[in-house]
Amino acid sequence: MNSLDARIDELLVQAPYSYRPEEQASSMLELLRERLLQAAAASATYSNYLSHWPIPVSHARSVAELPYLPVSVFKQSPPLALIPAEQFQRVLLSSATTGQQPSRIALDSLTAKRMTKGVVSILRDFIGPERRPYLVVDEPATNAAGGELAARGAAIRGLSPFASATTYCLKRNSAGELSIDEDALAAFASRHRNDAVLIYGFTTMLWTQLVRQLAQKRICLGLSRAHVLHSGGWKKLIAEAVTREEFNLKTAEVVGCASSGVIDFYGMVENLGIIYPDCSEGNKHVPATGEVIVRNALTLKPVKTGEVGLVQVCSVLPSSFPGHVLLTEDTAQVMASHGCRCGRSGLAFRFAGRVAKAEARGCGNVEARRMEQFAEAS
Amino acid sequence: LSSRLVQVNRVERPEQITEASARLRSELHSRAVSTSHLLDIFQKWSKGILESEARHVPGAVFLSLWLRRNTLEPLLTRELGQLDGTWGTEEKAQFQSFPIGVVGHWPAGNVEVLPFLSLTCSLLGGNAGLVRVPSGLVEITQALAKPLETADPEGIVASRTELLTFPHTELPLQNAMAGSVDGAVIWGGQEAVLAVRSLPFPHWARIQVFGPRISIAMMDRHSWSDEEARKKWCTRLARDVWQFEQQACSSPQVLFAEHGEPTDVPRLCEDLAEAFAEENRIHARASIEPYLTSRIAQARATCLLEDARNRAWFPETPDWTLLLQHRSEIPLPTQGKTLTVIPVPDLADAVALLDGNVQTLGLAMGDPSRERLVAERAARLGVDRIVRMGTMHVFDSPWDGTELIRPLTRRVRYSPTANF
Q: Across all residues in chain A, what is the average pLDDT?
């Protein structure tokens, strides 16, 4: 194992948020720089990209100066990878909205292993290290074996290291619609009433398929020691005018746990091995295996505390695809640059939304017989 | 809504629109305004724009130049034959142009001066104008209208104009506007144009559509073989790219560069990059939508990851981008001052790619006889304007292959009974 690999593996076993920001900044710059050069050696086109960056990789003085790839470059098939196709162990797919291409992320066995370790390391900091009964608010088919795994399946699988036994509480009825598997849910609730349990569902599925249904029937599962994790975006819930507070309270009510046990986390398949759970202050944090930079859309410089900008995520974990420094299509507000009241180090931020898509518009034709500004020089 | 001032009014009920249209129609029927008088007002307005705060509005210089008598008078004469209506006689019949009535305008939101450019075309045809001002242009339109208070103390323009604003998603208001006009001028992207065209216009309404289209630049090998000439062309092209944030139909999105040796093209790109940097220094961008920043980053990465032979020039900011791509089709536009340069061994290969989606072809040609052939071929393939590079946004009527004012008039035939 070379020294880069050893350093990455070391990061995966240490506490994810207890680093010193200055040390973290310089170590992250070195690790990412090495990662980028390694990726360039593996791919002629990626090397072409790096060689055109206005600041050469070797001259970068901070992570913010390193070349980033827009996350949209992974929306292609075959996937943008640093390894030959025969070494793909699995391809992860992002959750794409209707009519859009999903991102495709090629994993080799080392990257897949680090992805799991990365997520486990982060979640331990939020819910503790123990394995516990795991209730998945989805159907078993979502996590079926196969070469391609969609975002929901990847999230379900990513939490399995915390599971002592897994129960799925949704099933398809004869019309092909999802509904609660009442027998499975009732059995899980009665068996684990006094146990620490983990519940996971995509945010919209958790709300529409479980919480809303149980709330209408005034059912409480009585799982007072549950942690409820959810991810996948609020777009549909915003359309239904469901606030975060309402979501947390109602979910806690039907599960029977404290609302502080309901944790939203942000993750994207491209930012492999890193997720961003909300802390007790409602902020998101950067683990030792990565970095987040919020950039001003006009200057692309990092924004100041309080400002909103485009989110760049970094991860030292992948070796099978060039997902080390990525400019996302999400926006976030920087809440604090150095630490949070929850005790975690580094940047604290909150997602603000996704950049609006816009049609490349046409006509703004202008007629003029002469143009003062331009005619003289032409 | 009626007022002596031209001002943007927010509307919430369909009746407000139908009432505004009725007022305009009644004004049209009650008195005619001489074109010459209108040109006097426009001339003063043109001056007023440059002397007021409105001069800072992007495109204000264009609007001001457009409004000058020496711009409009020749154009009117060319399109209508004369300034003010009198019956022209041919054998036993007489002919004269009359306005079509109340013309609705749906300008795109990406060019600040478009509401007034569109409106003035219909006013010059003797019509009244009902303009839906996009929400992002309300203050700017208001600023551009301000100098009219001095230029038009009688309120002639105000009497024939209603500037309205309402969300484009308000279908009852859109329907009311469409239903109360005799003609329409629609600008914008495909989505906007299709949405407006599907509104319930009266069956007699005459509809003019501008957009969406793209524009292309081409250079033959002789035009840029000399260093001095090459640098001049680069400056001209940079200016064409800079105008309107490269969002106009007439903005060049791609440059086809005919080369002697393929290795020459990077040299051209380096001069272009220098010209872009200089243009950016003079006309720096003040703001940008995050989606455009994303799209620019995507264009840069896609180009360089697609083919290791591709090259690019860009600063750390999203200010401008030059992409040298080896491909044989016209790429989708990125806009935001992103120009794709495609090297071709023979310009004929590039000309063959043109179709009706291309509005303007900006040319830099060192060989005049070949230029003629390129122009004729491009016109045959659907291009409406073939101009010198550096003047891609400067054009006379016809516009998008259509005259500007005549389509907003009716040619009336009168056969006096005494002649038979």
A: 88
pLDDT of residue A372: 33
Separation CA A11–CA B124 (nearest Å): 72
Tell me how far CA of residue A280 lies from CA of A58, A203, A349, A357, B35, in angstroms. 39, 18, 13, 32, 70
For residue B357, give the DSSP letter: T
Residues 117-136 in B contacting A (C-alpha not used; CB under 8 Å): 117
Q: Do A368 and B305 touch (CB under 8 A)?
A: no
Give the C-alpha separation, A91 to A93, whole Å.
Answer: 7
Interface mutation target, options B117, B298, B313, B323, chain A, most CBs of A under 10 Å:
B298
The number of residues in chain B equals: 420
B41: Cβ contacts below 8 Å, ≥ 6 apart: B148, B151, B152, B156, B157
For A308-314, the CB contacts below 8 A with 24+ separation are: A308/A332, A308/A333, A308/A352, A309/A334, A309/B290, A310/A355, A310/B290, A310/B293, A310/B294, A311/A349, A311/A351, A312/A68, A313/A268, A313/A270, A313/A271, A313/A274, A314/A28, A314/A32, A314/A63, A314/A290
Burial class of residue A374 (count of CB atoms within 10 Å of its CB; 0-12, 13-18, 19+): buried
d(CA A172, CA A181): 9
Cβ neighbourhood burial of B263 (10 Å; 0-12, 13-18, 19+): exposed
- Collect all residues of chain B within an 8 Å Cβ-Cβ radius of residue A48: 304-305, 308, 310
Q: Can you tell me the distance from the alpha carbon of A116 to that of A233, in angstroms, rounded to the nearest whole number?
A: 21
Residue B403 neighbours by CB under 8 Å, 6+ apart: B79, B397
For chain A, helix (H) and strand (E) counts, in that order, are: 11, 17
Integer Cα distance of B64 and B48 in angstroms = 9
pLDDT digits (tens, 9 = 90+) for B251-306: 999 999 999 887 789 999 999 999 999 999 999 998 999 999 999 999 999 999 99
Per the CB < 8 A criterion, the answer to whether B196 and B174 are in contact is yes
Write down the ipTM of this complex.
0.88
C-beta of residue B97 within 8 angstroms of C-beta of residue B409: yes
